[in-house]
Amino acid sequence: MSAVLARVSHAAGWSLLGVLVLLWPAAVAGTLADTELKFSLTIPYALLGDLAWQPRADEGPAEFVDGSCRRLRIESSRLELRDDKLYLVSRGEARLGVSLFGFCIKPINWHGDVDVLLEPYIDAEWQLRFRLGSTELRDAQGKPATLLNLIGGLIRPFINRRAELFGFDLGAPREQIAELLSKVVEPADQAELQSVLASLRLGRPRVDRRGVLVEAQLTLPEGFADGLLPPGQADAAGLAGTELTQLQLERLDAFIVAVVKLLGGEITDPVLRQQLLALLLESRYRLVDILTDYGPFEEEPVRSLFVSDWERLRKLLLAVDPGTITHARLLRYATFLNAGDTLLALDAALPQLALWISRDGLRTALHKLAPAGAEPSLDYGYAVDPALRELFGLPPEPPPVPPEELIEESDAIDCEETYDIDCEPPANEVPPTPGDEADMPDTPDNSALHLPFWARLLDLLVPTAEAATAVPDRVTELQRALGRRLPRRDDLTNYTAQIAELLQAIGQQELATRSLDEAHNSVFLNLLPATA
Question: Fewer CB within 10 Å: N-end or C-end of the chain?
């Protein structure tokens, strides 16, 4: 049999079926004083691909030959889940007979699939391994070939050798928990921490649709949490209320931006890239909502945003087709999800530490996602990020416009320039003479020249009724008032009200010229501001 390198195997339609470690703690009684933290480890099937074998383009099938009467040829193999049992399904052909004086007497030939049941177990070194269970042969049409089970005896040693070489390390959760907790334990309490970590034990593995599940349990002794320190949050010292919320939001936004930039540079699927952009934008919309809402909140708003963003990231990464990425990258994605879930699990067990938003916690998770040698930053900034713009196909930020000559606001109020209907000219201003009225912008011939661009466009869509008399109607008055007016901050309420009144008046004029059903009038008036 020629030596071959095992490659990641995936069945049609399969994607990354689970998270390497999905941690949701459940407190159960160990003793009256201790707290037992239970969680599940889930190893996705895509990471078990080394059990299977797919030949490379420059490789042929795996062959085992022992004379002219014992020959086995394996073309490919894959993992398959059926009825909550995991099988290694291999496609191949075999020839088995009795060799006598150089002849093969009554050989049995077979071509089809062989299904070998895989039974997971964990060895003393925390390696996930598999024993071989029952073997079943099927012919090329998929029907059981029970009379050919002798050939199964020829195939099992070949598959067993591959199973013996396979092992998946489950020590990562212990290392990540140790890394996070070591930063919040006093130096004098490191021995107690080692005792806590030594209590981490694994149960019997089982299979389901997400992957191989392993139940784990960690014992937190009485008083352990009381001596823990806040994890590296010196920059948050003394902050509370809105200031603390803003700091947490900045950390979370920096984390999401770093993740989006890392994944955006690797994921080529256009649908997933759009989901990445949507995640970033919608997270920032919710961030603004939190900053502008002073509560009270039913739950901690920033943590709720983190959990929501994390769930969306998980779904996005689970949608990545493992056949389109390398095994190393697949392992990075699963380990990243593992680190984030570990963070949330520890936070649920030790909420007073706010581990989920600590720099150490976020940095630990982020470094699991980054390729070797990369150093993603968690620094928050207000500047435009050119890397993000390039990732999502946005044009470069235009260069800054040179500062124009400052226009100083005049102490005198020019009512003609502002077109404010409530404006009153200074007492010493000479009123215009009747002969000058032709030069003023209150006649139908030149009033449109002083309207803003959007108002002139509106006139093209909705003709403004000009008064037959010299007395302007309300629409004209409002258009003049809003013409070239730049509202000040303290005038925004009045300005907004005048805009709303103008749109309402224009809507009423439009309704008067059209035979619209009366039942639809209110709908039209409500939709008009949304389309203006």
Answer: N
**Could you tell me where the DSSP H helices lie in 144-203?**
149-165, 172-182, 190-198
pLDDT in tens, 329-370: 888 887 788 778 777 777 777 777 777 777 777 887 888 888
Half-sphere exposure of 363 (CA within 13 A, CB side): 13
Contact of 21 with 368, CB cutoff 8 Å: no
**Cβ–Cβ under 8 Å, residues 45 and 17:** yes
Predicted confidence (pLDDT) at residue 206 exceeds the cutoff of 80: yes
* C-alpha closest to that of 340 among 27, 19, 126, 45: 19
pLDDT tens, residue by residue, 164-191: 788 888 877 677 777 777 777 777 777 8
Give the DSSP letter string of 90-101.
EEEEEEEEEEET
What is the CA 72 to chain-centroid distance, rounded? 46
**H or E stretch including 418?**
helix 415-418
| Best CA proximity match to 38, nearest among 53, 52, 22, 51 | 22
Quick one: which H or E segment has residue 353?
A: none
